[in-house]
Amino acid sequence: DIQMTQSPSTLSASVGDRLTITCRASQTISNWLAWYQQKPGNAPKLLIYKASNLQSGVPSRFSGSGSGTEFTLTISGLQPDDFATYYCQHYDSSSPLTFGGGTKVDMK
Amino acid sequence: QVQLQESGPGLVKPSQTLSLTCAVSGDSIRDTSYYWSWVRQPAGKGLEWIGHVYRTGVTTYNASLKSRVTITVDTSNNQFSLKLNSVTAADTAVYYCARGGTVLTPWGQGVLVTVSS
Questions:
Q1: Fewer C-beta within 10 Å: chain B N or C terminus?
Q2: A37 CA to chain B: closest CA distance, Å?
């Protein structure tokens, strides 16, 4: 199975910061990658699909990029509501879904 | 607006079967081409995909759980279900249902299932 590795596991930041979270796949996955945001006590929420497509209703300060084995989620201008844990997820029709280990964004 | 709601016992004894149902509103399982998934999350840990089902009953499971998992769909009642047998403490987690077999959205709020005697 394809393994997804996120880094860093924890990121300390301040409101207004520009953040980048990285997700690496153990083999090439084209652009079959999604990003989710999860706040404590809540279900994950889809932010980005197909590596760079913003889900409807998600603020434009979130962006995704990458293809092949390396992907990034960028938050441009961190807002108080953005302190959360972020997960990448590989998907395609012929493989099981696999998630990265998560990146917790907390307050510096 | 599509909503999913998990239900089922919050406490299951070791070696028994965990059974959960996900009720779907705002969308028809019978009339759409979505898959319907189950995902779990142990406390303080990451997300693990369990499997998914299509409206026809076709299923795909995580290989690590395949021998113990059954996911079924009930289009008449617009819901789908999860059964996990021979549970141990390692199966204690929040269980989520979600729409989709690739990208998952939306998700249910989740239900905590504890395996303990």
A1: N
A2: 12
- pLDDT attached to residue A1: 83
Query: How far is residue A50 from each of residues A55, A71, A88, A107, B22, measured CA to CA in Å?
Result: 10, 11, 11, 29, 26
Residue A93 has pLDDT above 80, yes or no: no
- Cα(B48)–Cα(A32) distance, integer angstroms: 18
**Residues present in chain B in total:** 117
Nearest to A87 among B47, B98, B105 (CB): B47
CA quadruple B64, B48, A74, A33: dihedral, nearest 10: 50
pLDDT along chain B (117 residues), means of 10: 97 98 96 95 97 96 96 97 98 98 97 97
- What SS3 state is found at A75? strand
CA–CA separation, B96 vs B109, rounded Å? 7
Please, which residues have CB within 8 angstroms of residue B7's CB and are 6 or more apart in sequence? B20, B21, B22, B23, B111
C-beta atoms of A43 and B109 within 8 A: yes
When computed from its CA atoms, the radius of gyration of chain B, rounded to whole angstroms, is 13
